[in-house]
Amino acid sequence: MFSGSREFSPLPSSPSSSRDSSYSSSSSSSSSSSSLLAAPRRSPRALQRHGSLLAQYSALLESYTEGEIRQLISALVERYRQAMNSGGHELPLFPRAGSRRKRARARHKPCELRELEVSVSELGLGYESDETVLFRYCSGTCEAAVRSYDLSLKSMRSRRKIRKEKIRARPCCRPLAYDDDVSFLDAYNRYYTVNELSAKECGCV
Length: 205
Fold this sequence. Notes:
This protein is α+β, with helices and mostly antiparallel strands. It has helices at 15-37, 44-63, 66-85, 97-107, 148-158, and strands at 112-119, 132-139, 173-178, 182-185, 191-194, 199-204. The longest helix has 23 residues, at 15-37.
């Protein structure tokens, strides 16, 4: 039995424990600094949206039968083949804004005279000749030349007052005058002259 109280002092920390504590503090500080320098991750809400979209698409595909999936794939392949045959190189899902602007500008170009150098055989008139001619043609829109006649005619067509007749409800960019006659030799050394081949003046008619 001991009378009186004894004071216990804490044991001195060993060098290994101090090293461990210093290592843990340094590692925690380095991990915190590395976490601060790490790239920002996607938010959980975005991940949930992404997962929900994947789930919807997977459920949609599971709802198709094998025959329907084959039909869908064949339709996509046929569409891609048609785009490649028409000179396209890619098949975007959504049209670009730049391409839409280009098409809008092309649709609203005024009626004007243009020219193109082609061979006589390419004219489609039935002549076989390698001689080249300057073919002038009319191209452009005539929105500014719309008259009351065109507006009324368009209204009559929309109301089905005029059904069977082949008519135009808007002015068209056409030649107002033609250039001089064009003469050439065909592949058999026969001489031909074609009149009213190239446009000389264009207008909305």
